[in-house]
Structures are given as C-alpha cells and as structure tokens.
Design a protein that fits this description.
This protein has 137 residues and is an all-beta fold. It has no helices and 10 strands. It has a 5-stranded antiparallel sheet, with no helix packed on it. The protein has a 5-stranded mixed sheet with strand order 2-10-9-5-6, with no helix packed on it.
C-alpha cells in the first residue's frame, strides 16, 4: 500500500527497493515486505527527498549529502541511526543498510526515514531484516 502523496513540502517515501530494482516480498506467515540484508544497497523513491542532486565522491561514504540523511531504527527503538549515502536527489536516494547497525538483528522490522533538516522528516517506511545475499549490479 502506498500512501497518497503529501500536499505539503515534507519528504515523502513512495517505495524502497533493493539495488536490483525489484520490490521483494517475504511471506513467512508473520511478515510481508521488502527483505533487507545488512550491507545491501537500497533505493528510496518519492518526492521532496532532497533540495539538490549530490553524489558521494569518496569512501567512507558520508551519512549526510546536501543536508539530507536516511535514518534507520531497528524494531520499536526510538534511536535513529544515519545510513551511508551514495546519491541524493529530489525523487531518489541511494544508500547502504549499514552492516554494523543490523548485526544480530535478523528477523527484526526496520524503519527507514528521510531527514532533510533538523525538523523535516518523512513518515517511516518499514522493511524486514533477513539473512539473505546482498544484491550485485
């Protein structure tokens, strides 16, 4: 289910996909949603995600590009951790699901959100952490 696009300028996540560009579904009887592996490259699609287009040009990858970050919280935690970013633009962000954040948390729900300033945050998008191979391209 995709929520209606906002009528304000808040960032809005319409989808998160893996690097292969395919929305993955899991149905193990308890969850449905994108299956994310630690270290996986993910893409957020939406609106108002960034005020400018910026690409990371060095490693380690930055956690803020052009004033934008993608944050994750595992389970019901209210602790949000910024993820490494490859690219940000108004309608797309490419980032890595940080391996260190998810160590030992397989099977957990993970919420991602986009932050474009101190108080401007998207609604969270839920995925599920699974032991699976990361995508290659």
């Amino acid at each position: 289910h995709v929520a209606d696009a906002p009528t304000n300028n808040l960032p809005w996540i319409s989808a998160i996909t893996d690097a292969g560009g395919f929305r993955q579904s899991i149905d193990d009887g308890s969850h449905e949603g994108l299956a994310v592996a630690p270290g996986m490259i993910l893409t957020v699609f939406g609106l108002n995600l960034a005020p400018q287009t910026v690409t990371a040009n060095a490693v380690p990858l930055p956690t803020v590009l052009g004033g934008v970050s993608v944050e994750a919280a595992v389970g019901s935690s209210d602790t949000w951790t910024p993820m490494p970013l490859f690219f940000v633009s108004a309608q797309q962000i490419n980032f890595q699901a940080s391996p260190s954040l998810f160590a030992g948390a397989a099977g957990s729900a993970v919420n991602f959100r986009v932050r474009t300033g101190l108080a401007t945050v998207s609604e969270p998008w839920r995925v599920f952490l699974r032991n699976r191979s990361v995508s290659l391209f």
